[in-house]
Structures are given as C-alpha cells and as structure tokens.
Amino acid sequence: MNTLPLADRRTVAREITTLLTTHRTRLARLLVVHLLAVAVGLAPPVLLGVLVDGVTTGFEGTEVDVVALLIGVALLAQAGLAFVATRLSFTLGEVVFADLREDFTERVLALPLSTVERVGPGEVLSRSTTDLESIRDIVRTGLPETVVGVLTAVLTVGAAFLVNPLVAGACVVGLPLIALSTRWFTRRAPAAFADELAAQAALTTAVAETARGAATVEALGLGERRRQLVAERVARAEEASKRPVRLQVRWFPVVQAGYHLALVVVLAWGAWLVVLGRADIGEVATIALFVRAMVTPLDDLAYWFGEVQSASAAFARIFGVAPAPGTGEGPLPADAGLEIAGLRFGYRPDRPVLHGIDLTVAPGERVAVVGPSGAGKSTLAMLVAGVLRPDAGRVAVGGVPVTDLAAPRDHVALVTQEDHVFHGTVADNLRLARPDAPDADLTAALGAVGAHLALDTELGPDAYRPTPAQCRQLALARVVLKDAPVVVLDEALSDGVDVLLAGRTVVQIVHRLDTAVRADRVVVLADGRVVEHGPHAALLAAGGGYADMWAAWSGRPVVGAAE
After folding, report:
1. Which residues are listed as membrane-spanning (predicted)?
2. Does residue 563 register a pLDDT over 50?
C-alpha cells in the first residue's frame, strides 16, 4: 500500500518549536503562574516542619495559631494560582491544537492531487482523525501537567537541599533507576507506536475502500474477500496495539518504584541523622512532605511521558504531510494554449496506459476526446489537469508545464465524473471555487448553468439533498466562478452550458457522441494512442473508426463516408 512520508525527528522538533514560539507570550505567562503556584505550594510543608520543631521546643499557643494561619493562607493562595494556571494551560492547549489542525488542513489541501490519488483513502483519513486525536490530549492536558511535574520536581528538590542537604540527598536515590528504565523505554517506544498508527491507517484504508466501492464489491461478488482483508487488518492492528502496552506496563512500575523509594529512604536516612544530631525532626518531616507532594505530579509526568512517545509518532505522520518540493516555480502562462508532447503514463510500470500522446489545442478551441472504454480518456483528463504526473513527456499551458504552476487550479479547472456536494449552504459550496465571491456573482454563476437554487439552501444528509443534475450544475457553477482559462470536462454536460465554455480552451471527455458534434475538433483514442483527429464532419467523411462509432451510436449508416 502506498503511504505518505514520515517526518524525521529534527523536522518534528522544528515544527513543534515553531508552533510554541508563535505563542511564546502565552507560554511564558503560563510558566510564571505555574512557577508561583509550585513555589507557594512549598510553604505548607516548611511551616509544618517549623510547627513540629516548635512543639518539641515549647511553642506558645499564639505562635501555633500564627503558623496554622500561614499554612491556611498558603494553601488558599496555591489553590487560586493553580486555578489560574490550569485555565491558562487549557486556553493555550486549545489555541495550539486549533493552529495544529488548521496547519494540517492546509498541508493536506496543498498536496498534489496525484499524491492523494496514489495513496490509500485511509492514509489521509487516519492522519486527519486518529493521529490528530492522539495528539489532542497531549496538547490540551499533557503539556500543562508536564510543566507542573517538571517545575514541581526541580523546585521541590531544590527547596529540600536548602532545608537540609544531608537529608535531601536521599531524594535522588531513585534517579538512576528512573533514568535507566526510561532510556530502555524510549529506545523501543517510538517504533512500536509508529507501527501501531500505521496498522490503524491500513485498517482504515481497507474499511474506507470497501465502503466506497460497496456496489462494485457486491456486483463482482468480492464480499468474502473484502471481509477477509478487513479481518486481517483488524488482527494486525490489534497485535500492533499490544506492543506499546507491553512496553508501558514494564516501564511505568519501575519509574514509580524509583520515586516511591525516595520517600522510604528519606524517612529512614532522616531518622538516622536525627539520632546522630545532624538533622532536626522538623527538617526530616518537611523533606518527607516535599517528597510525598511530588508523587502525584511525577505520576502525571511519567504518564504523559509515555503518551508523548505515541504523540511523537503521530507528529511524524502529521508533519510528514507536505507539498512536493519544487512545484510552483514556473512563470505564469502567456496564453491558454494547451500542448501535449510525448505523453506517456501507466498506473503500474509494467502496464502503460498512454503511449506517446501528442496533441496541440489552440487557445479557445474545444476538443472532444472519444474512444472505447479503457482507451485512456479519463487518464488523459487527469494528466491535463495535473492530478497525475506523466512518466514521460509533458502537458503545458501557455508554454508552462502544468506540474510547475504555482496554482494549477487557477489555470486548469477539472470537472470529474463524480460531483461532490459538501455539507453547508449552496453559497458555501460555490465559494469553494472563489472564497471572496459576492452573492451577485454566485447567483450569476447559478444562472449561467441553469440552476434554480437559493444561496441559503442548506445541503446535506439532514437537509436538502440535491438531485444528480443539480450536483452537476453546482460543479459547473464553480467552473464559472473560478474562471480558469482551460477547462477539462470528464463525462456528459448539463444542457445549456455551451455558453459558459465560450472563449475557454476545453478538453472534453465524451461518452455521448452528440456532444462531440459541437466540438471544434474530435480526438479518437484507442489503446492509449491517438488514432484519429479532426472535425466531426471530416472524420465521418474519412470513414474510419470514428465513423463506425457514430454509426453504432446513432443507429444509422454514415452517408458519404469514404469507401
């Protein structure tokens, strides 16, 4: 199965840095508030230590009340700062995730159509759904909780060393265990998570292809084969999902043991130092409370570190979606003339579809392409529109190769056999061609193709469902709005659209031969080659293959054909 590329770690790091740099002010504000919240949160353990020492040395009642009041004030201040920090964290997460989604959408839309055609439908679908979903919680919740965990660990250990360095040394006793186990995990996790996402994409592709081609599957009796394929993909996805879980259940308990061990050692080592007179009971109590307070943030930090390994694989898939380099470098076309020279193409290297097509279409000329099924007509249309890239030869508009145009859709408009209507109003559907088009232009475009639809009509499964003829009219109205100088039409047209094609260079794939009569020239394809071309009347007079096709289609012999 063809897949989209993956971004390397350097690219992922650069893209994430760029994303965060864009919001550096929000991020700085978030870090400051979290820092204050963690710092204030260190006060209660310190005050409790003071209280413990005070009880052993004979605190006055008023002194106890003051310390208790300070503890209460510190707890309230920490709660307030934590609330503000959490609010800032979620706001930042939503903004960053929204930017990420918009950036990914732009990347997908900027992909060459040939790339989208080549890869499986589940490849783009899984990256825009499953992969983004796996990142969502990281950006929204994991980022702030990671910040809290890191700040808590650093400030707490630092404060412990200020209280009593000898006792505080026990806080890091579990660090080697955590470091070694994490190193083991990070060496294996990225590949495991990447394999899991790839397996899910393959499953999505199998399901999407089966659903999209349900009629073909049923007609050809392929149901059992498709069910078997989906079952195999399900089994593969299930097995791939188990490997990351196995890694996590082996790594996470070791990390937890590392920082829980610190609490036990602090108490034991601190008690020994108290006996030796090298530490006070209050100091040991304070540091023990510090370590205990770190457990929850460190639990969160360890959890999100594991999730980041999955997210890094998703980031690689998302940032791997990028337009092909080197496109958009050519000059603007000087005119709308179309030149096809030595054009060769095959969907597989060993099965060529087109064999050296040569064709010149003058600016404003309308050419009808006819031929039997499988002759390569639709393939030629997609090559002219830049959807596919030729194996050899070139397609140029005004002397500029279509593949070099910065915005091919501005110069070549393609209307395929399938008419796509999107959920939204009629106006929304039309503005896909020209987002800034005023209502007057939208109404004029509908009128040009004979459509009678109100601009505010809602379209979709739960609203008005346009007829196939209306879907075709909407597609043609987009062509009118786009006003591209070259138009490629695949399949039959609606009535009354000859006016909208006037003055444009048109390549029209014809299935109803009466449409070819209105063309300036007819090109006959057979087995991927041009076998005849010329005006309709001249081809009939020549008595060749086109004349035979016309006779078969019209049901009457061609009069005056060459013998």
Report:
1. 31-52, 64-85, 147-180, 251-275
2. no
